[in-house]
Structure formats: structure tokens, C-alpha cells
Specification:
Layout: E1 2-4, H1 15-19, E2 25-27, E3 32-34, E4 54-56, H2 63-73, H3 89-92, H4 98-101
Antiparallel strand pairs: 1-4, 2-3
The structure holds iron/sulfur cluster (SF4) and FE3-S4 cluster.
Function: Ferredoxins are iron-sulfur proteins that transfer electrons in a wide variety of metabolic reactions.
Organism: Alloyangia mangrovi
Cofactor: [3Fe-4S] cluster; [4Fe-4S] cluster
């Protein structure tokens, strides 16, 4: 599976949503997640993310992100069309410790 990771938080560009063939993105307040059981591993969303936040779970240290994506994919509504990203998305790109300080 592919997963959405920390740098999506407060950037939430949503370009990823437009390209997913199986609509497996779910929307929270300021980030998206992928349902790991629905993702077909096509990989097309990874290069589309301007914040470089999408990763294959084959990379090191991804277990906690797979868990995070699964947990919230089961609570949040599916998103099938790109909305408007936050105005300061570009400024928030690369800000450290987003999960502890900015996740909502
Ligand atoms: Fe959707 Fe493919 Fe990305 Fe999985 S890898 S979330 S199926 S676009
Ligand atoms: Fe997030 Fe990147 Fe999608 S910032 S909403 S994973 S395009």
C-alpha cells in the first residue's frame, strides 16, 4: 500500500485525490489518509503530491503511518474530488513535527 505521511498535515493539496483510480482517500480537517486495504498499489498518486507526502509502505519506518492511515480511513469520509488547499499550504511545506503540533 501507499500511505500519506506527516508533511501532508496543513498542506493538504489534494492533487492525489484526482488521480486515484479506486477513490481510497479519506478526508480529515487538515490532512488526508489512504485506506491501506483499498489501495491497489498503482503508485500514480506518489509523484502528484506537491508536498512529497505519499510513500510506499516498503520504505523504512512506515509501520506507524500504515496504522495512522488505517485508523483515520475508518473514521473519516471518503473524498473523491479535489477541494481548495489551505492558503498557506506552501509555507507549511516542510515544517517539522506537524503530527504533534498541527494535526487536527
Ligand atoms: Fe490510489 Fe494508487 Fe495512490 Fe493507492 S497508490 S492511493 S490506488 S492512486
Ligand atoms: Fe496531502 Fe499531498 Fe494529497 S499534501 S492531500 S498527500 S496531494
Amino acid at each position: 500500500t501507499y500511505v500519506v505521511t506527516e508533511n501532508c498535515i496543513a498542506c493538504k493539496y489534494m492533487d492525489c485525490v484526482e488521480v486515484c483510480p479506486v477513490d481510497c482517500f479519506y478526508e480529515g480537517e487538515n490532512t488526508l489518509v489512504i485506506h491501506p486495504d483499498e489501495c491497489i498499489d498503482c503508485g500514480v498518486c506518489e509523484p502528484e503530491c506537491p508536498a512529497d507526502a505519499i510513500r510506499p509502505d516498503t520504505e523504512p519506518e512506515m509501520d506507524k503511518w500504515v496504522e495512522f492511515n488505517r485508523k483515520y480511513a475508518e473514521r473519516w469520509p471518503v473524498i473523491v474530488a479535489q477541494g481548495t488547499p489551505p492558503e498557506n499550504a506552501a509555507e507549511m511545506d516542510g515544517v517539522p513535527d506537524k503530527l504533534t503540533t498541527l494535526f487536527s
